């Protein structure tokens, strides 16, 4: 018993530890997700790093798993990472739609649009943005509404649908204004200006550019000031207004602390001087750009193109061809670099799947061990239960026999004290005193542990066989009662043998229920039950004495 109990203890401890570990992990991931969600707008790079620390998100609860995937895609998109293969967002959206979680359903639908957008599936992307807008209308998230409208506008601009793009971006401006998100509002104004430039409506473009710059200036949004001024400079350059272009480029350069951005603006200024046929200035700004610590392949590509144009202007055609070849190879390297990045991402996903499969194999192995252990413990439990039940039965038998033995011992103790009654004659005739004592001396330890064997041994000792000699008992009782019991048998022939014997012994007031059970080899409860039935069958009053009843009836 002790051994199996210990096994149960180990199982309980294992299950408790497993539950605590699982709950602890879920709680830890929940904290990570909460921190990432709080920082994703202002510090998307930090949010992405936090989310990348979560291993095997597939093992999380449904709510955490879907929230994790939604935030991960959001962080990747804000960090300009490739999201083309992040199609898990479709299932995430379906989950939030089923839950009627409108804010998350709207956000997930928007990122479904972003994934379709990156996959160049215009129709699907447009449908997703429209659905996202419908879900967002059920919320008061004006920032998300602006984001949906703005990206839908970008999709239309990419397909030369400039009027629709302008309309959608104006909607975005209104939403951002309600949300008091002035950064995104300034960005949307810039996008409207870009669309007007592409529509060749320069005056309208500069109207919205100037509104965007004014807002960026008032909120000290340096990056947007730089971006809008740079776009205005490019627009002036395209229209042939070189001086305003150079002025805006230099103003943009003053806002920049990033070497890559600085190099890009310097190369824009160099291109203005190419258009003005001022090769000395081209070389000056080109050298400034190349002197910066920049390894951006796109900038290197642009620099080689400019070098080629300079040599061509100077009629140095072999040199011009040389730089043009470098420009060509740089272009190839740029596309190869992007291809390699995608391959590295695919390799990373493959390595992750390998690690996940290894973990799954380990989990399956652990589950097999747990199942086997559970089956063993179940079988052990059945055995323990059966043993306990058998032990309980033996205890009940032993208790009944102890009661009988105690009654016989009491009968023997009273033998020397009572007068010469029928009870004494009976004890003397069967030598109860001696034979009761023999019960304890003749039984082995195994027989004492078995109630069934004890009962059989008792009968062998007391009665000399398997059953007591009822005929001798009956003759002695009937003789002392002047033939009363024979008369009872004649008057009540319908009584069974057991009922008749209990009637007879019940008339002997010196016998209690336990003693009658010993003599008739039955339980005390059975004696009481049969006597109760007899009272009803014979029409006796409750508590009426058997001897008095039969004496009156026979008389």
Would you mind describing this structure in some detail?
With 555 residues, this protein is mainly alpha-helical. The protein is 81% helix and 0% strand. It has helices at residues 2-39, 44-51, 62-78, 88-98, 102-118, 122-136, 142-158, 162-179, 182-198, 202-218, 222-239, 242-255, 259-275, 279-291, 297-313, 317-413, 422-430, 432-442, 445-449, 451-463, 470-480, 484-491, 497-507, 513-520, 524-538, 546-554. The chain starts with a helix and ends with a helix.
What amount of the residues lies in strands?
under 5%
Total beta-strand segments: 0
Task: Give the uncertain stretches in residue-range form.
Answer: 1-6, 17-21, 415-420, 429-438
Mean pLDDT: 78
Instruction: Compute the number of helices.
Output: 26
N-to-C series of helices and strands: HHHHHHHHHHHHHHHHHHHHHHHHHH
Helix share, percent:
over 70%
| Largest sheet, strands/sense/barrel | none
Terminal Cα span:
64 Å
- For the CA atoms, what is the radius of gyration? 51 Å
| Structural classification | mainly alpha
* Overall geometric form: rod-shaped
């Amino acid at each position: 018993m002790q051994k199996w109990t210990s096994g149960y203890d180990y199982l309980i401890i294992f299950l408790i530890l497993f539950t605590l570990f699982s709950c602890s992990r879920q709680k830890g991931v929940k904290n990570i997700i909460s921190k990432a969600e709080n920082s994703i707008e202002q510090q998307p790079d930090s949010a992405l790093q936090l989310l990348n620390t979560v291993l095997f998100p597939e093992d999380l609860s449904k709510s955490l798993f879907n929230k994790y995937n939604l935030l991960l895609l959001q962080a990747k998109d804000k960090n300009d990472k490739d999201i083309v293969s992040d199609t898990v967002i479709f299932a995430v959206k379906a989950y939030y739609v089923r839950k009627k979680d409108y804010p998350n359903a709207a956000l997930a639908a928007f990122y479904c649009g972003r994934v379709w957008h990156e996959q160049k599936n215009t129709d699907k992307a447009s449908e997703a943005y429209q659905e996202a807008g419908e879900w967002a209308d059920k919320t008061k998230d004006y920032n998300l509404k602006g984001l949906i409208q703005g990206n839908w506008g970008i999709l239309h601009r990419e397909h030369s649908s400039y009027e629709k793009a302008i309309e959608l971006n104006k909607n975005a401006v209104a939403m951002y204004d309600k949300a008091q998100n002035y950064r995104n509002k300034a960005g949307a104004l810039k996008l409207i200006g870009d669309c007007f430039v592409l529509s060749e409506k320069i005056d309208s473009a500069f109207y919205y550019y100037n509104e965007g710059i004014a807002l960026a200036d008032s909120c000290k949004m340096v990056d947007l000031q730089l971006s809008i001024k740079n776009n205005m400079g490019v627009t002036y350059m395209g229209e042939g207004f070189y001086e305003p272009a150079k002025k805006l480029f230099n103003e943009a350069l003053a806002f920049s602390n990033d070497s890559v951005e600085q190099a890009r603006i310097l190369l824009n200024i160099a291109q203005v001087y190419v258009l003005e046929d001022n090769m000395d200035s081209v070389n000056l700004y080109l050298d400034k750009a190349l002197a910066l610590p920049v390894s951006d392949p796109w900038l290197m590509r642009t620099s080689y193109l400019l070098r080629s144009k300079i040599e061509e202007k100077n009629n140095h055609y072999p040199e011009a061809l040389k730089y043009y070849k470098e420009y060509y190879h740089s272009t190839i390297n740029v596309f190869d670099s992007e291809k390699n990045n995608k391959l590295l991402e695919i390799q990373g996903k493959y390595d992750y799947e390998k690690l996940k499969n290894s973990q799954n194999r380990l989990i399956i192995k652990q589950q097999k061990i747990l199942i086997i252990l559970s089956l063993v413990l179940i079988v052990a439990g059945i055995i323990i239960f059966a043993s306990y039940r058998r032990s309980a039965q033996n205890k009940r038998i032993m208790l009944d026999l102890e009661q009988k033995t105690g009654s016989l011992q009491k009968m023997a103790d009273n033998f020397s004290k009572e007068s010469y009654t029928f009870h004494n004659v009976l004890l003397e005739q069967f030598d109860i005193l001696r034979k009761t004592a023999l019960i304890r001396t003749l039984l082995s330890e195994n027989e004492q542990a078995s109630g069934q064997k004890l009962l059989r041994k008792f009968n062998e000792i007391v009665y000399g066989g398997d059953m007591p000699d009822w005929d001798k008992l009956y003759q002695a009782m009937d003789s002392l009662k002047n033939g009363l019991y024979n008369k009872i048998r004649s008057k009540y022939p319908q009584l069974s043998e057991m009922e008749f014997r209990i009637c007879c012994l019940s008339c002997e007031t010196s016998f209690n229920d336990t003693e009658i059970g010993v003599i008739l080899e039955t339980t005390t409860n059975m004696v009481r039950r049969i006597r109760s039935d007899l009272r009803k069958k014979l029409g006796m009053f409750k508590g009426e004495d058997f001897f008095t009843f039969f004496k009156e009836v026979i008389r």
